[in-house]
Amino acid sequence: MNKKAGEIIALRTLALVIVLGALWQAHAQEAKMPYPSRAPYDQYLMEDRNAEIAMARSAAPEAISRDAEVWVLGRHGYETAVKGKNGFVCVVERSWMSPFNAPEFWNPKLRGPICFNPPAARTILPLTFKRTELVLAGLSKAQIIDGIKAFDRKELPALEPGGMCYMMSKQGYLSDLGKHWVPHLMFYVPQTDGLAWGADLPGSPVMLSPQFQGAPEPLTVFMIPVLKWSDGTAAPMDAN
After folding, report:
1. Residue 55: strand, helix, or coil
2. What are the beta bridge partners of residue 116?
3. Rounded-to-integer distance, Cα 174 and Cα 181, Å
4. Better-scored residue on pLDDT, 10 or 134
5. End-to-end CA separation in angstroms for the chain
6. pTM given for the model
7. Residue 27 to residue 236: CA distance in whole angstroms
8. In degrees, to the nearest 5, what angle opens at C-alpha 224 toward C-alphas 162 and 233?
C-alpha cells in the first residue's frame, strides 16, 4: 500500500468516526429530550369541550370548583367556557407551562388541571394566557422567553399576596413518568430562596417547584402535597 492510499483510508476512517459520533450524540440528545420540538397544535387540543370543562373543575374540591369560572383551550388560545361566581378560575394547562428546560415541554399528552384562587387568577393566570399566545404565534423557546420578559416588564399585574392554586385532580397527566403525581396545593410569592419556607429540607412537607423561579417569570412557587384527591378519595403518601 503506498503512502497516498494509506492517507485516503485514514481520512475516510476519521470521517466515519466523526459521522458515527455525531449520530450517537444526536441519539443521546433525542433520548434526553423525547419531545424535541412542538407537535401539531391540534394534538394539544381536547375534542370534547365538556370533557375539558370537567377536567378543569376536577382540580379543586366541588365546593370551590362548581362556582368557578372555567376556560378551555381553543384554536385561538384560551376562551371562557363557563362564567364563575366565586372568583376562582379553573383551566387545564398544557405542556408549555413546564420549565423551559423540561424534557416534556412539548409533550402534547400533558394535561394539568389547575384552579386559581382570586388573587392568583388576577396575577398568575395571565402568564398561562401569555405563554399560550406566544406558542400560538409559532415562536421558538428563546423568543417565548423574550416575549414573557417584555410582558412582565410592561403588562403583568403586580403579584397579589395570598395567590395560590389547587392541583388535586385524578384526571391530570403531568408526565409520561408520573402521570398524576400526587394532589397538591401551590403558593405564589415574589422570587425568593426556597429555604425561606423550609422547602425540600428533610421532613418538610414544602417543596420548591421548578416551574418559574425567575426563568423567566419573577416568581417562586411552593408546593405542598395533600392527603386526598379533589373527589375525597385517599391519595398516595409518597410525593417522590
Report:
1. helix
2. 89, 165
3. 7
4. 134
5. 62
6. 0.83
7. 35
8. 110
Is residue 80 predicted with pLDDT exceeding 80?
A: yes
Residue 169's nearest CA partner among 152, 153, 183 is 183
pLDDT tens-digit map of 217-226: 889 999 999 9
Phi/psi class of residue 181: alpha, beta or left (left: φ > 0; alpha: ψ in -120 to 50)? left
Distance CA 144, CA 19 (A): 33
Full DSSP string of the chain: --HHHHHHHHHHHHHHHHHHHHHHHHHHHHHH-SS-SPPPGGGGS-S-HHHHHHHHHTTS-HHHHTTSEEEEEETTEEEEEE--SSS-EEEEE-GGGS-TT-TTTT-TT-BEEEEE-HHHHHHTHHHHHHHHHHHHTT--HHHHHHHHHHHHHHTPPPPPTT-EEEE--SS-B--TTTTT---EEEEEEES--GGGGTTT-TT-S-EEE-S-TTSSSSEEEEEEE-SB-TTS-B--S---
Q: Which residue has the cell 414544602?
A: 206
Count CB neighbours of 201 within 10 A.
Answer: 11
For the chain, the average pLDDT equals 87
pLDDT over 90 percentage in the chain: 73
Residues 52, 34 contacting (CB under 8 angstroms): no
- Which whole-number Å values give the CA distances from 55 to 69, 172, 217, in the listed order? 13, 7, 26
DSSP designation for 205: S
CB contact at 8 A, 219 and 159: yes
With a CB cutoff of 8 Å and minimum separation 6, the contacts of 39 are 106, 108
